[in-house]
Specification:
globular, mainly alpha, Growth Hormone, Chain: A, 434 residues, 2 domains, 15 helices
Length: 434
């Protein structure tokens, strides 16, 4: 069954993966390029803030565009707009211009990823959604690593690197426009408020926020912490890469397991394990003797490596789990639900580093793990409470919205589902989210 859905959705997964290479590469490329042009930390921070602000605005405003023009056109518009901004970036070194360009890029990338997430989620039923989203997350994870390889390869020619990112943006448009699957129907959608989403799937929203805060904090703070502890640059790069390795190892098993159980139990398990591991890290403080023992303590290095693999393997897939759980709440406006979850994730990704910066004067070396313990602990407690208040319920029959090859009759997924329901001698009960 998974293969059937995967074949029809492969184009959107590959197109999103191409844009992930562009997005991840630009995230690293911009501060390096600004530094090479003689910029300072303030300028780098300003441009980064402009991108984050644009991303958050794109999560909200992009929803209207998706509903008005459809998934394919919205994705193509986002990728095309990113390509245009890259072309303009080649023409100027102005700080203000780069900040404006990154702001627009943030909005465009947020819109296209919202369209991709919503398409994949709406087009798959509950019993395979976790695995399909895991495959998408795996592809994105591999592309994130590839983006750094490309960046290293073209480090001596930044303009050529921009050309490569421009090419990938255009390729994503071509790939998506050649898809044979019928995207879910958009247009006049029932309004979906943030309050409705929080009422039905609060675990998904809180989990998305925690996932954004934890992953962003680890990716931004861990390299600095390792360097401050005296760890060599090559060793630091290796240890940070282990976070991504953990994502690749854990993503598929987590997705497959989520299709066989109440996803809130898996979210609870992830939160508990992350909380316990970071608490153990705080207790043992593995870096306290690193400068005296150097890199020769194989046991310490092995323990730290395993810790990073497990934390990366549980924290990165957490958003996919929350997305899959969120779409158990049957709504007529999939793009709105996807956008809300992505927006909350973006809020978490902004909150995490800011909270660590605020905590650093009091906890200079322990701010990141303390924040992780607090957030994962709160997620675990809240998820356990929700499981107690609303136990798992299995639907009698679920009519899913899926994508069909366009070589068929050209009917929309909603038309097929409604026809099946109306032809049935009895109405089927649609399961509601927990």
């Amino acid at each position: 069954m998974v293969r059937t859905y995967l074949v029809s959705l492969l184009a959107i997964i590959i197109a999103a993966s191409c844009m992930q290479v562009t997005s991840s590469a630009l995230m690293t490329f911009v501060p390096l390029y600004v530094g090479a042009q003689g910029g300072d930390t303030f300028e780098v921070g300003l441009i980064a803030a402009a991108y984050s602000l644009g991303f958050m605005v794109g999560c909200l405003r992009g929803l209207k565009i998706i509903n008005r023009v459809g998934y394919i056109r919205a994705f193509a518009a986002g990728a095309g707009l990113t390509a245009i901004m890259i072309i303009f970036a080649r023409m100027t070194d102005s700080l203000v211009a780069w900040a404006a360009l990154r702001f627009i890029m943030g909005g465009a990338i947020a819109m296209l990823f919202s369209a991709a997430d919503a398409w994949l989620s709406v087009a798959t039923p509950d019993n395979v959604r976790g695995r399909i989203l895991s495959i998408n997350s795996l592809a994105i994870g591999v592309m994130a690593i590839l983006s750094q390889v490309l960046l290293f390869h073209f480090s001596d020619d930044p303009l050529l690197m921009l050309d490569v990112m421009l090419l990938l943006s255009v390729c994503s448009i071509v790939l998506l426009c050649l898809t044979r699957s019928v995207p879910p129907v958009t247009g006049d959608k029932a309004k979906l408020s943030f309050g409705q989403v929080f009422k039905e799937v609060p675990v998904a929203l809180l989990g998305a926020f925690v996932a954004g805060a934890i992953t962003t904090s680890f990716l931004t703070v861990v390299p600095f912490a390792l360097n401050d502890a005296g760890v060599a640059a090559g060793t630091t790069a290796f240890l940070v890469a282990l976070l991504y390795v953990g994502r690749l190892i854990f993503q598929w098993p987590m997705g497959a397991l989520s299709d066989m159980m109440d996803r809130r139990f898996l979210i609870l398990l992830c939160a508990i394990v992350i909380c316990v591991l970071c608490a153990l890290y705080l207790i043992t403080d593995p870096f306290k003797n690193w400068q005296t023992i150097g890199d020769t303590d194989d046991n310490l290095f092995l323990i730290l490596s395993i810790l990073l693999v497990v934390i990366g393997g549980l924290s990165f897939p957490l958003y996919s789990l929350c997305l899959a759980h969120g779409f158990e709440f049957k709504v007529d406006n999939g793009p709105a639900l996807s956008t809300y979850l992505l927006f909350v994730w973006a809020l978490g990704s902004v909150f995490g580093p800011l909270a660590i910066s605020a905590m650093s004067p009091v906890l200079p070396d322990r701010a990141a793990p303390v924040l992780t313990v607090v957030l994962s602990g709160l997620l675990a407690l809240f998820t356990a409470w929700r499981l107690y208040r609303r136990p798992s319920r299995k639907p009698v029959l679920e009519l899913s919205y899926t994508s069909y090859p366009s070589s068929g009759l050209g009917l929309s997924p909603e038309t097929v589902a409604n026809a099946l329901e109306n032809a049935s001698p009895a109405r089927h009960t649609l399961g509601k989210a927990q």
